[in-house]
Amino acid sequence: MLLTRGLGASPGAAVGPVVFRAVDAIAAAERGRPAILVRHETDTEDVAGMMASVGVLTSRGGLVSHAAVVARGWGKPAVVGAEEIEIDGSAMRVGSTVVVEGEVISLDGATGEVFLGSSGLLEAELPPEFDTVLAWADEIRGRTLSVRANADTGADAEIARRMGAEGIGLCRTEHMFLRPDRLGVVRRMILAQDPDEEAQAIDELRRVQRSDFTEVLEAMDGAPVTVRLLDPPLHEFLPRPEAVGGSAAAEAHTAAESGSDGDGVVDRTTAALQQWTEVNPMLGIRGVRLAVLKPSLYAMQVGALLDAVADRTEVGGTPIVEVMIPLTVAPSEMVAARGWVDTAVGEVGFGVVPAVGTMIETPRAALLADEMAAVSDFFSFGTNDLTQMTFGFSRDDVEAVMVPAYLARGLLEADPFDTIDTVGVGALVADAVRKGRAVRPDLTVGVCGEHGGDPASISFFVEAGVDYVSCSPYRVPIARLAAAHAVLNGSGARGASV
Amino acid sequence: MPLVYAFDHRHRRSPKDLKDILGGKGANLAEMASVLRLPVPPGFTITTEACREYLLSGWPASLDAEVDRHLADLERSAGRTLGDPVDPLLVSVRSGARFSMPGMMDTVLNLGLNDRSVSGLAAVSGDVAFAYNSYARLIATFAEIVHGADADAFGRVWADARIRAGVGPDAHLGPDAAAGLCARFAEVFEHENGTPFPQDPRLQLDRAIRAVFSSWGAPRATAYREHEHIDHGLGTAVNVQAMVFGNRDERSGTGVAFSRDPATGRDRPYGDFLVNAQGEDVVAGVRITEPLSAMAERFGSIHEELLAHMRTLEVHFRDMVDVEFTIEQDRLHLLQVRVGKRTGAAALRMAVDMTADPDIALSRAEAVGRVSADHLDQVLHPRLARVTARPRRTPTWCC
């Protein structure tokens, strides 16, 4: 329901509960909740609250009022001068409608419309100049840096392509496992009591992965798709311990379809949880370590990928795949992984062995880059994990609480998870690139952490000689632009700090 | 190195490239005054260097003498003297950092008024109410900014005076009520600050400059810089400028204008304008503004002059500019110019359009450089699912 209209002061849409004081917007943000800040007019005392809110609504003021200027500067959706609104303490009135604090409204900062209730959000409509400017940016960027996307599904890959991605730099396979219709099969594999049961589950997974990969390869036809084999610890696929015996057990039972009694499933789930639950999962059994314990897993994934390649080739497609091994710390792991890939290739009877590379996300792998390069066709720096492990910062525990305190006291110049730490993590990356290329001059080097979409970091990666960055589909245009800016500025490291 | 430069000082480099020392506002004022010879009220800029020195080790030794000299020059070119009981010069004292920090820092207006010069202003303007309203504004902002007094104390007295005079929030008080308000404000000032409002204009200026320097370190300014990743060590310049009055009469006014539409990028000037008002009224959004087209009706030739100046500035800066202007009794004055902030969609459109504009002739590389990651982020933003085809409500920016 259209509540009222004001001036569209800063485009973009926001949906959230209303608050009437800056401090309430800040409090909501601290709880991770969205809030729309509603004020008669804003002044400098409201700035922190505006920062914290998802959108701003004022009842007075024009397009150059404080609220409008500040919101526009930040790209924060804002409607100003909605004169029908009367604010009274913790409620606002528009005609006979009263909206109390916490009630949800939706606002459109382009049209100035304000709706009562939650309105769905639509994908952005790109102005015609968008493609023109990005085409110019691509001319400037030339072959300096390629931009790929992180995409796990055919739909994501399509968006990535539309955003100008030149390939997929990170196709995570675990999200395919987490879909509701897959999860049961994954659990059955984990809970399997004998090799036959496990093989059966693995076969089933191979079938579903095959169709997943086919979708992605179709959307990215003719461009490289780097598939990362399973990375997360197995307990992430199991029900939470407190849920075992409840609905999750019933779910596992259904999933198991084994005809065994429910208690058996519960017992096995409990046992599996005991086996796989970790004190420190970030540094636990994940990535290639998992494959060492369950080698059939990676062989299955590679098999599924090759099946998909065959499917696409059969219908005239041009699939280009690369296999990426996560979390390695030693060349010997890569040798083992290559063995699993070769086995799968042999089984499928494929003539071509896909490129097999490693993620560089542990400091040790970076330090041994020359040896890693000898057994890898490419490197992809997973800078999220590399930053966590180089700093010894658990992102989940540190970023929200400690990083702001460090920034405020000047102990850090920037959040290293936002912008690459050039002198520490960045130096590790640059050295590893150098060492790797010394052994294998044609080594392809990518970055697939979130830094791949951060302009200042991109500037650094250009300088470090990285071939491509890979980021979320909607960051792809920003990465294309940032790479052009890096070329125009003539230097990479300028924008990066720490 | 001098710590003070007149706006019309002939710098060896283009002043717009001297933002490091003159601040953004001061550099562009100098560009308008010394290079483009546009109608800018005379004034001078105290450099960011002076601010940095003040914040680090106290008031620079040479600063008093330099301010004295530039003030004397300013008085000469304005033909008026600060605090003169017959025809006083009034100045504004504004911050101006290297990077724009909208509304983050302090401004003192009408500086130079005191119990004596207020009657001079009343006589010269022929408007007693205007003179006392201006004086009241000075006393209140001075208390707030220089002494950190509670604005509410003045707000309550003001509200009282309006109620007793029976005028609305947008109207000025009549002569007697305004004079009475000044007397009450002077009492509140002394009560709040334990010291009377300074009558010596040079002392007013000294304190205002210190206050603007110090406002660089205010929590809200610090928070803004943190959010915008602006270096805390830059400091702010201070601009002292002869006041012109948009609130003098119905042949006066003030506004903010953009050389292109900052929301859409459309090549058409857009702006907000108020008749008989001071700049703060536009920016604070306290009064409902009129579109530039309203200005064309009331001030035809001045409207044209403004558009011509904006085009000159746009071509000179080779970018969309926003201009703060004041009309004082049918004379146009430009008070500020800067490259205007814009939405992502507008940034894209302007960048592309300006490659085709023969006077601007932006290169493709420059066009790409004009678009930031944030701009792209904005156009990639989601919109509400319920789309309406209706145009915006009575757009105030049409002209």
Structural description of this entry:
- The complex is a heterodimer of chains A (498) and B (399).
- By secondary structure, chain A is α/β, with parallel strands linked by helices.
- Chain A is built from 21 helices and 20 strands.
- Chain A has an eight-stranded mixed β-sheet.
- In chain A, strand 7 (85-88) and strand 8 form a beta hairpin.
- In chain A, helix 5 (154-162) packs parallel to helix 8, helix 8 (195-219) runs parallel beside helix 12 and helix 20 (455-464) packs across helix 21.
- The longest helix of chain A has 25 residues, at 195-219.
- Chain A is globular.
- The two termini of chain A are 48 Å apart.
- The relative contact order of chain A is 0.09.
- Mean pLDDT of chain A is 87; it is low at 255-260 and 492-498.
- Chain B is an alpha+beta fold.
- Chain B has 15 helices and 13 strands.
- Chain B has helices spanning 19-35, 48-57, 63-78, 117-125, 128-147, 151-165, 175-193, 201-215, 219-228, 279-283, 292-298, 300-317, 344-356, 364-370, 373-379, and strands at residues 4-6, 43-46, 81-82, 88-89, 91-97, 107-111, 236-242, 253-258, 270-275, 290-291, 321-328, 331-339, 383-384.
- Chain B has a five-stranded antiparallel β-sheet with strand order 1-2-7-5-6, sandwiched between helices.
- In chain B, strand 11 (321-328) and strand 12 (331-339) form a beta hairpin.
- In chain B, helix 4 packs across helix 5 (128-147).
- Chain B is globular.
- The relative contact order of chain B is 0.12.
